[in-house]
Amino acid sequence: MNGEPDLYIGGSWRHAGDGATRDIINPADGSLAARVDEATPHDARDAVTAARRVFDDGSWAATPVAERAALLDRVADLLVRDREELSLLETRDTGKTLAESRIDMDDITSVFRYYARLIAVQADRLVDVGDPSIISRVVREPVGVCVLIAPWNYPLLQMSWKVAPALAAGCTMVVKPSEVTPLSTIAFTRLLEEAGVPAGVVNLVQGSGATLGNALTDTAEVDFISFTGGVATGRTIAQVAAKHVTKVALELGGKNPHLVFADIGTAAGWDSAVDHVLTGVFLHSGQVCSAGTRLIIEESIADDFVADLAARAAKIRVGDGMDPASETGPLVSEQHRGKVESYVALGISEGATLVCGGARPSDPVLAKGSYYLPTIFDRCDRSMRIVTEETFGPILTVERFTDESEAIRLGNDTQYGLAAGVRTSDAGRGERVVRALRHGTVWLNDFGYYTAAAEWGGFGKSGNGRELGPTGLAEYQETKHIWHNVAPQKAGWFKG
Ligand code: NAD
């Protein structure tokens, strides 16, 4: 970063093989946030080979579990120490508010602590085969060399969901952050080195996915690819990986419904629902895979609810994430703002009713950044692309229903299935609806929360595999059944 080497391969820091660099832009004001090395495919292949060599020498996988757990805890301690520095980098790189970046860092710390605890207690499973001379047990072993690819919206958070369980399991890995937001991952890799991660266990390359992708994925040296990003990229990776029958986990996009029933009840229930719908979609300017971008609301309350939402949305303070007064920051780049603007134009041409936003902020102070106002479209339906496609910006669409079955049908009428929210004061209805929704996470009378101990992932085109929780560790492990006969006899099948 800024002259220091940024590629970490086989325990050494180095510049890109061809000396290329990339300018990282601060989306809050268009300034240069940092200049980083841009890896070549050759660098990426070196990183894979280093990870393979270290995995194959067996020492890391053989490290006692207690030592690996202690290492994860040391990483967590350093994350606490460097919380502010990492948060500042994340905000400068992504534009998200500093308050959000600090929450990210706390969550990352808890992921490392969680997997330190989980690996320490994971036990082999004994299987009773009904014969006292047979010891049958199922053990877990590291899956091997992992390629970990992350997106730009939660750069270090998404990467930590992969690195922590991979380290816990005893894997070696190549880490590739998004080329748009590599800064926190570079700093984090230095932190891993300081914590004592052995050379070659974690290798870092950053650069364009299109350029590095094949070097990282089109190889028999890799055992597992864990990818978080868009559907199109996930599909490409799965196709390339299939050539080598490489295991793949995909955490992809979402177009997440938030179902609001008329029985939300008291004034407090109403205010809470408005607040959660608002936060669920406009936090981080909508650049959240699980953002509640589709409000699906009971017809009888829709007009009043949308009016309240619009009034609140218009008051959201959009600004530089470094300013404590800002409630949400800019979009990640000019290019991404262009995409969001084209979706707004599409929504208008498709006949949706623009209720608020639909423009850049007029404040001249924000003119140099990639800001966009919280935007609501009412009177939407499933024929509109604005309702079916992930815009990844601050855009809420509103659809209306008249009964519970229609609400469920609309909530499930999506190619995705990452997350959904339900608001009702009727507990019975709440339980019925959450069970009927085909989404990986469903919040009932809440929205957006997760914990390191519970699985995260999607149904449908939101991907396959799970992160976090026990399954998030199992992804990085192979199971092996060991059948041990302590009193061998003849097999006795062939008589001759
Ligand atoms: P993206 O697919 O453009 O890029 C993601 C990563 O893949 C980047 O590091 C990129 O460099 C890399 N990449 C690109 N082409 C590649 C290739 N051919 N081979 C290997 N790697 C390649 O996604 P993005 O725009 O960075 O992120 C936004 C997307 O991520 C949204 O769709 C969002 O919903 C999704 N996302 C999902 C989750 C989840 O938990 N399901 C979480 C965060 C973001």
Give, in spatial order, the strands making up the sheet with the most strands.
14-15-16-13-12-17-18
Distance between the termini: 72 Å
CATH topology of the largest domain: Aldehyde Dehydrogenase, Chain A, domain 1
Report the bound ligands by name, code or SMILES: nicotinamide-adenine-dinucleotide
Rg from alpha-carbon coordinates: 24 Å
Q: Hey, roughly how much beta strand do the residues contain?
A: 15-25%
Biggest sheet, open or closed, and with what strands and sense?
7 strands, mixed
Oligomer designation: single chain
Low-confidence stretches: none
Find the count of extended strands (DSSP E, 2+ residues): 20
So what's the overall shape? globular
- Measured as a percent range, the helix fraction is 25-40%
Q: How many discrete domains?
A: 2
Number of helices: 15
Counting helices, strands and paired strands, the structural category is alpha/beta
The whole-number mean of residue pLDDT values reads 97
CATH class call of the largest domain: Alpha Beta
Write the CATH architecture name of the largest domain: 3-Layer(aba) Sandwich
